[in-house]
Design brief:
With 229 residues, the chain is mostly helical. The protein has helices at residues 4-13, 16-27, 30-43, 51-61, 66-75, 92-99, 103-118, 120-125, 130-133, 138-150, 158-167, 172-178, 215-222, and strands spanning 182-183, 186-187. It folds into 2 domains: 4-75, Serine Threonine Protein Phosphatase 5, Tetratricopeptide repeat; 101-226, Gun4-like (Arc Repressor Mutant, subunit A, Orthogonal Bundle), CATH 1.10.10.1770. Strands 1-2 form a two-stranded antiparallel ribbon. It holds the Pfam family GUN4.
Length: 229
Amino acid sequence: MKNTSGLKHQIYSEPEKKQLESVSQLLKEGETGLDVLMDWMVSVDKESSNLALGKAYQALYANKAPQVENFLQHNFPDGIVPLKSDRGIDYSPLQKLLAQSDFQSADVMTLQKLCELAGTAAVERNWVYFTEIESFPVADLRTLDKLWLMYSEGKFGFSIQRKIWLSVGKDFAKLWSKINWKSGNTWTRYPKEFTWDTSAPEGHLPLSNQLRGVRTIDAIFAHPAWKKD
């Protein structure tokens, strides 16, 4: 195992993949490692998409030591992802669930937030028409996506699913197989057959209502939120 000074250099200077590794290693170094990790976290730009920051926050969120709780409350009282919304929607409950790695509850909450974006009728029916997605604000979809990305080490999120979909030539049948929503001709059964942790295939979460066809997820993939500014 590397010593703490070596790990400190790695988390401050190395590429993101190495930083992710160093988070796990620093957590094994006890109080000294925690001090390095916390110092590094406050040095990171709050608009950052650094996945190591998400991993570090999750680990500290699960740590109930008073000094760690005080650190998070003082420096990251609302989590690490800025919760931008052009509709005034509160994404903090979703951030808390993802910080706890409660991906199943977070998936349910994500659908609730999509319904809130679509309006009162969607909230009442508890699902979204594909025609409602076009009017979703870019800021809100990006917030939802970044929450999933940051708390899954980059494995989950709409943008990840879209990337895989593009890689298979926009073939939804191939996408379902790649992200394990379908095996052969058999749909993955909800909820027991889905994998609610980061051992799942890339793009496995969040779910969309694929059983009603591809229009909903196709509308999400077509949204301008994924265009580079």
